[in-house]
Amino acid sequence: MTPSNVNFKRQILVPILGAVFFFSLASFKNDFFEIAKQIEIFTEMYKQLNMNYVDETNPAHLMDNAIEGMLSDLDPYTTFWTEQEVERAKINSRGEFTGIGANVSTRADKLIILEPWKDYPADKAGLKAGDEIIQIDGTNISDYNENAGELLQGSAGTEVTVTYMRQGKQNKATLKRAAVEIQAVPFFDMATPDIGYVILSKFNEKASRETKEAIKQLKERGAKKIILDLRGNPGGLLSEAVNVSNLFIEKDKLITSTQSTVEKFNKTYLTPRNAYDADIPLAVLINGRSASASEIVSGSIQDYDRGVVIGARSFGKGLVQRPRELSYGTQVKITISRYYTPSGRCIQALDYWNRDEDGNAVRTRKEDYKAFKTINSARTVFDGGGVDPDIKLASAAYSPITTSLLRENAIFDYATQYYYKHQYADLDKIQLTDADFNAFVAWIESRGFDFDTVTESAFAKAYLSAVNEELDDDIATSYKGMMQAIQNAKKKDMRDKKAEIMSLLTDEIVKRYFYREGLYKYQLKYNPEIQAAIKVLNNPAEYRKILS
């Protein structure tokens, strides 16, 4: 290249770079001006409302509603955290806190004990799943406007008195709070003489360390194959997802990449060290409640053909969040990027940026899934709707009707009723029958349980339009017939989903008698997904066939 050509190219390049910088700067200035403008308008309006509104206003309440409204147009993972919520997130990440040792849920004007943990304060005080706490240290839950569960927290060794309802009778108990450790790996054991089984329930700071230690101990006991159970694992730290994957996948392999419109959030995450065991046969269990970090691990295991994935399609959360500190100890957790599996899949199922006419996020249609190839065997895998297992089982699925039953607490409430009507001293004696399922269905129908299908909602809207257009007299009979047909179909659907409903119902009932540890031991013997994992790991030819 001649000097004149070089000079000519420089003369062209410098103005182009200058133009790019100018337009980027102009764009940044325009964005900054627009943000500053909107903040000024909002501040003035907020001030005018608080100073001039006809009735007395609550400035904090107004601001909370404003923040909630602003974030509601985005995805549900971009959220504002109060000081208390920030502290709670730190506790969840560390896996340690102080309290009564129980899962608790707020329902109307009471707190419901979902699960007392064995040998912790709630259990020692005799509290059971299904107990309804109505008063804490003399404070009525119905009169408490904040998160009433926070009243149960306090320093280790301090006492708290609760008044609760059980089967229509009022009771009182005094508990002494204690330090509670939440283990990432709550259970591991031998499934067979040569297959180890590990439950990884969350991706906190201890996830990879506890998983590695569990596998180490199982191998010392003779394990030559491993089942890693990620069912119901909601995710957690991305770094720990990489570290857990690294237990089975060799050094310097891509586990996930993130992409964003913000350049600094475009990153690749490689395995940082040698695998703990890159060859041990592996089965990974997932279901519809395996999300985020669980999907990074199961997705990378699948993409590298490193193990067989078993169960049901995972949740489909392909978004990454990062907390940003705000004033007064608060934070905003912002979705900063989408993540992709090693083969290039984004498994995000819901599109929060394209909503239907009701404002609901649109789910990616199966026909719109894109095909990708696994790295070692070129097997076909798909994006758009979670990680799809290599072996699918009905018992692991979460259909719309099952999700509705869980949302309405139907399975939980029935298990409470069942517990007080039956007695079991032996774990193996719990075997639900067809008669038990029929009793559950009858109980559901007597309770008036119902759920709206997409089809039902569409017909209801069409009928409303007909009413507005004064056409309802002509189609009323047809509409009633159609809605009755849908009701009949929903009843049939409940029986069609018997496998998944019975699996959840059995788990909830077993837990009532023998705590979570008893549930894990029961599943190790009887759970269909674990049995499927044992079967494929005991059949090397089938295992290789699936992965090739």
TrEMBL record:
Spell out the molecular function terms from Gene Ontology: endopeptidase activity; serine-type peptidase activity
* GO CC annotation terms, alphabetical: outer membrane-bounded periplasmic space
Domain PDZ residue range list: 85-168
UniProt keyword annotations, A-Z? Hydrolase, Protease, Serine protease
* SUPFAM superfamilies membership: ClpP/crotonase, PDZ domain-like
Q: Which PROSITE patterns match?
A: PDZ (PS50106)
Q: NADP among the record's keywords?
A: no
Question: Does the record's keyword annotation contain Endoplasmic reticulum?
Answer: no
Database matches in Pfam families: PDZ_2, Peptidase_S41
Q: Which GO terms describe its biological process?
A: proteolysis; signal transduction
Under the heading InterPro entries, the entry gives: ClpP/crotonase-like_dom_sf (IPR029045), PDZ (IPR001478), PDZ_sf (IPR036034), Peptidase_S41A (IPR004447), Tail-specific_protease (IPR005151)
Among Gene3D superfamilies, the record links this protein to:
2-enoyl-CoA Hydratase, Chain A, domain 1, 2.30.42.10, 3.30.750.44
Assigned protein family:
Belongs to the peptidase S41A family.
Its name, as the record gives it, is: Carboxy-terminal processing protease
